[in-house]
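Subject: mismatched residue count in predicted assembly?

I count 224 residues in my input, but I want to confirm that the predicted structure covers every chain. Input:
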Amino acid sequence: MGLIDTNLMRGFSPDKLGKLSVFDTAQMFCDVYCLEPGQSQKPHAHAGATKFYFVIEGEPTLVVGAQQSVLRPGGLAWAAPGEVHGVANHSPARAVLLVAMGPSPNHATSPK
Amino acid sequence: MGLIDTNLMRGFSPDKLGKLSVFDTAQMFCDVYCLEPGQSQKPHAHAGATKFYFVIEGEPTLVVGAQQSVLRPGGLAWAAPGEVHGVANHSPARAVLLVAMGPSPNHATSPK
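Triage response: the counts match. Full output below for your records.
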């Protein structure tokens, strides 16, 4: 458990989008994603897991299934198991998102 | 799946804190909590589920275990299974939080 100021969690890289772990349990992980202009996470899907993106800063483009939209801070995109999702920063400014997925794939004891 | 503007999800009640469902799958639910000054969710725990609160607006007081702190927007509090957590708005302004928990207790098919 913990109390965390995510405003302090920023990690941008010229190579690829930055992912900073807020927490990670068998039931759920939570990350902060940091995207420079032009960076993206390709659309993909997870069997058995639900995931969402919540925009903290910037105007990233979110994809879920056949839907695609530029979201502003407060915008949220979510995908149920098997549903395609992704994010791309086509804007000229940096984008920061809170991302959570449950269950986490990072634990041997994760629920199936 | 969906693309949602959580800025439009506000529901305050004089009686108790408002909870608006953003989505709810077996693996995870996500709500927006709206607290008038003086309102709270009593500290409690969930066996088998991880939960977090992310402050969108206001300066609510978050409790996890023996820790307690006033968080500002961008502040996050999380609790692993069995860990006590709660939120109270001791400030003079409204507070809004994004809340997610996995697995969701609202599905007969929820992972155990």
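Residues 37-104 of chain A form a domain with the Jelly Rolls fold (CATH 2.60.120.10). Marking this ticket as 'not a bug'.
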